[in-house]
Amino acid sequence: MPISRKVIWWEIWPTENGALAKEFIERAIEGNGGIAPDAIHADRGTSMTSNTVTGLLAQLGIDQSYSRPRVSNDNPYSEAQFKTLKYCPAFPGRFGSIEDTRIFCEQFFDYYNNEHRHSGIAMHTPASVHDGTAVKIHAQRIATLNAALLARPERFRGQRPTRRRCLRMLLSPRDQADHNPFEAQPIRHARPVASEGRGGWGALGMKPGPTRRPVDGHPPNVCRSA
């Protein structure tokens, strides 16, 4: 199965412990249509290494995988999601309440799964790769590129245009300048919890960050979509 990068499930809590982690995993599997991953990769925090969680994983036949000590990139898919969230201009450094955090994440992860064009999966959305519709979309892309070559071969020097080059030629400067407030610009600090990787899920917690000024006049605790 391809690496979809889809955020399968997320939750926000003011604390973490083995019981919450166990319930989270159970709800994540239920939210994934009852399909459990082959493995779950996590850090070595007390929640994910607790007897409560390890017992559940053993019962469900899910392999356990943990980051190596002092190795920051042992969970690259979740870390990549962390960067996308961290660089989102709409993300505030602090939230007014835990409910504000949940409202923001509900909007962000809906955007991330269904609208964000991920460079690591050929500019498909995580949801389309996860549900298999990306195969049809990719075939349509190839047909469009081939048609562009047949119609104007002189523009491509006789070689089939790549998707990236075709986009550069088709988009106007204004189109290229348009952006979603969920995209670009470095900021800090939150993490998605369960995301699909190669045959398994990655698990991370939520961390607070520094205070951030409003973006484009929007209040820092409000997420705006384009």
UniProtKB/TrEMBL annotation:
Region: Disordered; residue ranges are: 177-226
Domain Integrase catalytic: from-to ranges: 1-134
Q: Which InterPro entries match?
A: Integrase_cat-core, RNaseH-like_sf, RNaseH_sf
Mention any Pfam family matching this sequence: rve_3
Molecular function terms in GO for this entry?
nucleic acid binding
| GO terms, biological process | DNA integration
* The protein's name in its UniProt record: Transposase
Origin organism of this chain? Answer: Nonomuraea mesophila
